Amino acid sequence: MPQYETTFILTPTLSVEEAKTAFEKFLNVAKEGGATIIHTEEMGLKTLAYPIKKKTSGYYFYFEFQAPGTLISKLEREYQIDTNVLRFLTVTLDKHAIAFNIKRREGAFNQPKTTTE
Fold it and tell me: Which residues face 89 on adjacent strands?
């Protein structure tokens, strides 16, 4: 089964609880469509690079999953219907991206550099 990752941004006018509820809703859509969730991240409220729908910040969420290809159109349709979603992006992961994500989850990046003297 192919592996995917999706990132979406929710409007900042939601409370933290409402944003988490929306995140759970999209996870459930994926699970009901036959997806196996590999990893999830709630990145929190962040400033946007440019305004979207007159908003300058948004709640970022990310999850990585394995699913049949037919699920992607259903998931993206749910993103389009939900008025709280500012933007979304779903991509298929190749073997290099999967290896990178595994290393990132294990903490291989952003480690302080050690100097030997």
Answer: 7
Q: What is the rounded CA–CA span in Å between residue 43 and residue 74?
A: 24
Q: Report yes or no: 37 and 31 within 8 Å, Cβ to Cβ.
A: yes
Distance CA(59)–CA(39), nearest Å, equals: 18
- % of the chain surpassing 90 pLDDT: 85
Q: Which domain holds residue 87?
A: 3-92
Across the beta sheet with 36-52, the strand order is 36-52, 55-66, 3-10, 85-92
**Is residue 72 predicted with pLDDT exceeding 90?**
yes
Domain with 15 in it: what CATH number?
3.30.70.60
> Nearest-5° angle of CA 57, CA 52, CA 62?
60
Q: Is 111 helix (H, G, I), strand (E, B) or coil?
A: coil
Per-residue pLDDT at 90 exceeds 70 = yes
User: What average pLDDT does the segment 73-98 reach?
Assistant: 95
pLDDT tops 70 at residue 51 = yes
Residue where the block lists tokens 């998931």: 75
Neighbours of 45 (CB within 10 A): 13
